[in-house]
């Protein structure tokens, strides 16, 4: 194996492929990055039996071949190289890397022990890469992080014709994001539960091209994997991951069909106020929100401890009410909203609030909605 490639192209592709390497691999070869030089160019791959990453990139290949080297070490080396072409040569059990006057010699791992990467399922459709990345970033806001509840660490992707719904919940909050896409089959209807971290990292990393291809083999019709593919660095990047097992809770019914109180508030003002007032809120205590005509008053702290209070303008339609929320969960939802004015819609003080951006006149796009459970207020 012998090839020559531009330093920036190689470093970017190696960093992308190595990002999904396991921290504690179950077997040593899973810490490796597979380098394959072919007549089509260079292919870099990683796989941990759950998630695979495969990057193709242009390179001047003199001799075809493949080698398995430490992925994290190669990423560190490539990041530190001078801005000159890189040459890699396989010589026996070692790979030599030359860039300008810098030279490295890397020990290889047994390539025959490396597992075969899963095949990409048939393409289900395409979506604008920047729109998809932003929608996923909003949806994962409410995903759980407790590995004892693996179903809640995923994002449920529901495909129905030309629309995609992204749903996530950790039991205390719920996010829903709707977006349009271009399906291969107009009447396609399917669903999948995708690990939130993998989905978030993948969507963010595939914005170089104009669109992302989504390929889904649902559990009932295949081995239960989903693939994402996009253009980058003059080549193609492809990720697959196994779907999560288990039944995602039926959360859509939690969004109420009507509201008794709706408040419109400037998002930036509310975020800053929550940040200030929550400075005195003890761990696991709520920030109180009291809505009355034209005013939202925020309070935190109680008894002999530090206390804070602040009022901001609010357009309140409906009955006055007082409730409270985990301040960080509230901030997570507010910062995920794009619009400058947010709507907080209540049925009653003890029930969840639905937070969304205040839509422009005539806009019926549901976009992003964030449902948050209230917290008990200290008396």
List the defining traits of the structure above.
9-stranded antiparallel beta sheet, 6 helices, 17% helix, 42% strand, DNA Polymerase III, Chain A, domain 2, single chain, 379 residues, 27 strands, elongated, alpha+beta
Any idea of the CATH topology of the largest domain? DNA Polymerase III, Chain A, domain 2
What is the CA-based Rg, rounded? 25 Å
CATH architect. name of the largest domain: Roll
Q: Helix content range of the residues, please?
A: 10-25%
What's the structural domain tally?
Answer: 3
Structural description of this entry:
Helices cover 17% and strands 42% of the residues. The chain has 379 residues and is an alpha+beta fold. A 9-stranded antiparallel beta sheet has the order 6-2-3-4-18-17-16-10-14. A 9-stranded antiparallel beta sheet has the order 15-11-12-13-27-26-25-19-23. The chain has a 5-stranded antiparallel beta sheet with strand order 5-1-7-8-9. A hairpin with a 2-residue loop joins strand 20 and strand 21 (295-300). The mean pLDDT is 93. Residues 127-250 form the DNA polymerase III beta sliding clamp central domain.
